[in-house]
Amino acid sequence: xxxxxxxxxxxxxxxxxxxxxxxxxxxxxxxxxxxxxxxxxxxxxxxxxxxxxxxxxxxxxxxxxxxxxxxxxxxxxxxxxxxxxxxxxxxxxxxxxxxxxxxxxxxxxxxxxxxxxxxxxxxxxxxxxxxxxxxxxxxxxxxxxxxxxxxxxxxxxxxxxxxxxxxxxxxxxxxxxxxxxxxxxxxxxxxxxxxxxxxxxxxxxxxxxxxxxxxxxxxxxxxxxxxxxxxxxxxxxxxxxxxxxxxxxxxxxxxxxxxxxxxxxxxxxxxxxxxxxxxxxxxxxxxxxxxxxxxxxxxxxxxxxxxxxxxxxxxxxxxxxxxxxxxxxxx
Length: 331
Ligand code: AHM
Ligand code: MG
Hints:
Blueprint: H1 8-15, H2 25-45, H3 50-53, H4 69-83, E1 89-92, E2 99-100, H5 105-108, E3 112-120, E4 131-139, H6 150-153, E5 160-168, E6 172-177, E7 182-188, E8 193-198, E9 209-211, H7 222-232, E10 241-242, H8 248-258, E11 260-264, E12 275-276, H9 277-290, E13 294-296, E14 313-314, E15 316-319, H10 321-328
Parallel strand pairs: 1-3, 9-10, 9-11
Antiparallel strand pairs: 1-2, 3-4, 4-5, 5-6, 6-7, 7-8, 11-15, 12-14, 13-15
This protein binds 2,5-anhydro-1,6-di-O-phosphono-D-mannitol and magnesium ion.
């Protein structure tokens, strides 16, 4: 139930017991992500001031070295999780290899690993367009008390314990699921508190938005070209509306609320697709399914794919259930 006076912190505590095997560890972990999100949000909101207080790479007025925002976000999320001793491993889209946290014994007692895309769509920052953070949480497979291994990170999306995203948009929102539906929280920037704004959000079964980078049209497989033609035909509720921001979190978020389909097919430049299975597709697919939508790679459900490597890319199609089912007829 929606209680708009409830903060994210209160919501996490209240729902802690509804999560099986709950020991409070997952709650602390989500709380840490909430904290890092607020810090990153503050920095993202200042992005336009960079031209005033000094360009990237220069010293700013406090004589601190300025960083690119995606590097900054990466450090903030990693440091928050490491300093709070609540995960045993982290993999980030910004890091070549996974990070094993073994600075002291306590860390190795932790049972969760986090996979994160700290600032997705970061090329949009320069032009004041929404960007996001995407995260995904798994229970480790390796034994507690040992170092994490690559297999802890290469788990299929079905094994996700929680996933979510933060959208730094006209408002900053945090949406997440622990497998009991998707809830959304909106930041009140005046007091730095996230409030419950969306309870158990559901994709409309059908929508009239299709989102794809049509600049790549000539490189798309024929079935995608045929589907685009279908979207543009005048029949029934078609033509659909084309909406593409180029920032996955924003495109997905809009489609989840309004109803729509998002497509990132293979192209000549990215023959395996562009989006990353572990940091982008799996968490978004988990949220999508929890909100009653579907996410596929053209052959199977995203959540059933066994990952082979940390930075694996795949074709990605997700959105309203009926639209994905319709799209599947073209494959
Ligand atoms: P990034 O992780 O380098 O920011 O790239 C991922 C982004 C997604 O947010 C978005 O859906 C996609 O790349 C857009 O790609 P394109 O510009 O090729 O349409
Ligand atoms: Mg990304």
